[in-house]
Every structure is written in C-alpha cells, then in structure tokens.
Amino acid sequence: MITRRAIVSAAIVIAIVSSGAYYYLYGREYVFRFTEAQLHQALAERLPIEKSYFVIFQITLDNPRITLVEGSNRVNAGLDITFNIRLSDEPAPLGGSIDASGGIRYDASEGQLFLTDPMVERLEVEGIPEQYSSRVAGVLTSALGEYYSAHPIYTLDGSDAKQAAARLVLRSVVVERRELVVTLGIGG
To answer: Could you tell me if 124 and 9 are in contact, meaning their C-beta atoms sit under 8 angstroms apart?
Structure first.
C-alpha cells in the first residue's frame, strides 16, 4: 500500500524536476528553419479537400503553393480550386486558383504552425457568371480561412528531442534566405 509519505516524496521530486527543467529552458531560444519545399510537402500531404457551402457550391482545394518573401513575417500560400456550382440540375465544374498571404500562429500544445488572417491576394476562376462573382469570392475567403485555421502548414516532430523541447512559446517568425525562421522559447 502506498503511504502518504511516498506520495509526498513523489510530489516533491516531480516539483524539483519540473523546476529544474523550467530553469534549464528559461531564457533559451530554439530556432527552426523551414524551406518552401518542407512547407509544401506538409500541406500536400493533407490535400485534396472537398467542402460544400450554401448547398450550391462544392469546392475542392488541391495543389498547394508556398512562397516565402524575404524580410516578411507573412507566408504567401496558394491552392488550385475546383468549383461545382449547382445552377440547374447539372453541376457546372469551374476551375481556377487562389493565392493568399497570412501571418503565423503557433499552437504550443500540438507543436503546429498555422497560417492566420489570410488575405486573398489573387483570385482567378474561369467561367463564373458575373452575378455570382461576389458570392464566390466570399465563399472562397471563408473556405481559405477555414482550411488554414484547421490545417497546420507544419507540425514539429515530437520524436526529435530538440523539437519536443521547443513546444514552448513563439517569440518570432521571419523569412530569411527563403526559409521560414521560427524562434521559440520560455522567458528571457
């Protein structure tokens, strides 16, 4: 039977180990560099995705593109889109692409990087009737925000000791030499 003394001793040991780990990690920075190719691969593994909106729109997102702009804290991301719009009994398939830029949000509990506040930079969709163009733009903006809020652009590898330790606090995100440079740490 576990005695009260053993429980108290275990709690003290856990507190000491936790304090030691915090003291060791406090003030340290962990810098990760992600290339466009790494980010592209992480996104491509999760596509294609199909979603329906307002009963008449079915959207497929596929073929991700990532561009990192030097000196920026935003990531440019693009997707090919296919619409099936039900205007009559037969859906009308339309194709195009959408490019957006966004900031980076870091989820420390999951070790994931997400694109945030996407802004549509370019939208090209062939064959959209004029009376539906503003509706389509609204649906695409919604789809893009929904997609990037639920799908990380990168997930840190929990089996890598450095990356596991880095599931801390985001300090900065910047693009240097066409790499996304993410700095994480506690305190400092």
So the answer is: no
Question: What pLDDT, in 10s, does the model give residues 62-116?
Answer: 898 888 888 777 888 888 888 776 666 666 677 888 888 888 887 877 878 888 8
**177: number of Cβ within 10 Å:** 9
Question: What domains are there in the chain, each with its CATH number?
Answer: 28-185 (3.15.10.40)
Of 69, 131, 120, 66, the C-alpha closest to 96 is 120
* pTM of the entire predicted model: 0.65
List Cα–Cα distances, 86 to 52, 61, 150, 155, in angstroms.
11, 18, 26, 37
Whether 102 and 77 have beta carbons less than 8 Å apart is answered as yes
| Cα dihedral: 132, 136, 138, 142 (round 10) | 150
What are the pLDDT digits (tens) for 13-61? 666 655 555 555 556 777 888 888 888 888 888 888 887 766 667 778 8
Residue 71 main-chain phi, psi, to 5 deg: 80, 5
Q: Which residues neighbour 128 within 8 Å (Cβ) at sequence distance 6 or greater?
A: 83, 85, 94, 136
Do 73 and 175 meet the contact criterion of CB atoms below 8 Å apart?
yes
Euclidean distance between CA atoms 81 and 99, whole angstroms: 10
